[in-house]
Every structure is written in structure tokens, then in C-alpha cells.
Amino acid sequence: METKIKEFPLDFQTLPDSHSWNRPPTEEDSLPVCDESHVPVIDLAGPRAIELIRSACEKWGVFRVINHGIPLDLLDQADSQTMKLFSLPADRKIKAARAPSSHGSTGYGEHTVSALFPKQMWYESYSILGDGSPLMEHAIKVWPHHEDDLFLGDLVHILTNGRFKNILHRVLVDKDKSRASRAYFYRPPKEVKISPASKMVDDSHPTIYKAVSWDDVLSAKAKYLDKALESINI
């Protein structure tokens, strides 16, 4: 399976114009940057864990957990394997390039919203849908065989009728070192419609979002980016 990826992966020796982001400041650049030291830290073994999680969801849309039961050596191994993956030669990574049929969700490639920007992102990603499908088997071909943050997403925001925040996640490029993130998405089946829960709706808090599926949200994100939720307002 072959997929052509423009100016990708990020293994060039000189900076091409396609990745040069010389642009004037925008309104978004003036938004406050979250200091990670201020992000709520929640002890999952503590007696107030549920209360603190609810508060963090309402005020922040992100929190950090400790005493989560995941062995630290397992997390270290995941970090090591992640760096091995992206350090592979370009011709090896391209073997698992995302196919159009995967809708940008399975395999190796650039972010699905890249087409919305005039320049290419300093970004490469690798994803696997854990559904045992042939697409998953294709993506696995490239993988070397050898404290955690939780972010709320659009579906939780919709389900709570806007009560729980969906934080704007932005990452800055570091000129001296690379940065890697591992994200695990927990979502309903694609055909299931999500709408504000009845407990979140009353006379003072009318329904603000229509029922949408996971595919609907992905399509809105690909088309409207950070304005996606506005497109599904009632």
C-alpha cells in the first residue's frame, strides 16, 4: 500500500519553505498559556477523588493523576518505544502510511487538519485503532518489536451540555529537542449519537448541542478546526 505524503516525514536537512511559519502575530497567540504546575493533581486513591475530578472538569478540562496503578517501568518502556518508532528511517515509516480509507485515523502520517493551514506542521504521528481490523494490522508493520495527564474532549463537553471544559491543547516547537506525546482516546462506537444528558438540561440550562456521532465530530473538526463545536450548536 503506497500513500504519497507531501514534504513528509520531517527528515530534511535544511528548512523548506513548506515548513517556514513566518507569519504576523494573531489573536490566538495572545491567549494565556497554562503553566503545568497549576494543573490540578488528583490522587485516585484519595477519599475526595471523585469530587476533585468533577471540579477539575468544570474549571480546567484537564487534570493530572497519581496512584493510577500503572507501573512506572511500563510507562518508561512506552516512552522508549515511541522514540524508537519516530527515529526509524523514512522509508520504514512510510510503509505504514495512512491510507485514504482510514480517514486519517490509522497508520503513519500528518494530522488530518494540516490541510487547513497554509504551511506544513512540524509534526508527525502514528496511530492505531484497537479494533483488530486490517487497517490496524497495516499500521503495526512499522512498530519496533522489542505522572499522566487527562484531557477532556468535545464529546464529554457535549454530553455535559457545556458544563465540563474541553481545553484548547496547543504545543510549541522546541528548537533544541524533540517532543513526543502518547494519546489514548476513549470514545463510543462511531454510529452512536451523543447529546446532552437529561440531568444536564433544565430551564436555566437549555440544550445547546444537537445529537452527533463520533464521525460527525471528526468531520466538523476537519472542516472547522477550533470552530467545530459552533457548527453543531442548536
How would you sum up this structure, described in words?
This protein is an alpha+beta fold and 234 residues long. It has 2 domains: 1-8 and 33-151, no CATH class; 154-234, no CATH class. 23% of the residues lie in helices and 8% in strands. It contains 6 helices and 5 strands. The strands form 2 sheets. The protein has a 3-stranded mixed beta sheet, covered by helices on one side. Helix 1 (49-59) links the parallel strand 1 and strand 2 (62-66). The longest helix has 15 residues, at 72-86. The radius of gyration is 20 Å and the shape is globular. The relative contact order is 0.13. Residues 1-7 have low confidence and may be disordered.
Give the topology.
Elements: E1 41-43, H1 49-59, E2 62-66, H2 72-86, H3 90-93, E3 107-109, E4 125-127, H4 134-140, E5 148-151, H5 154-159, H6 214-224
Parallel strand pairs: 1-2
Antiparallel strand pairs: 2-5, 3-4
Give a short synopsis of this structure.
Helices cover 23% and strands 8% of the residues. The chain has 234 residues and is of the alpha+beta class.
The count of domains is 2
Number of strands: 5
User: Average pLDDT across residues?
Assistant: 78
Strand arrangement in the largest pleated sheet: 1-2-5
Residue windows where pLDDT falls under 50 for at least 5 positions: 1-7
Radius of gyration: 20 Å
* Individual helix count: 6
Distance between the termini: 42 Å
**Beta content:** 5-15%
Shape: globular
Question: What is the N-to-C succession of helices and strands?
Answer: EHEHHEEHEHH
Tell me the helix content: 10-25%
Structural class: alpha+beta
Please summarize the sheet with the most strands: 3 strands, mixed
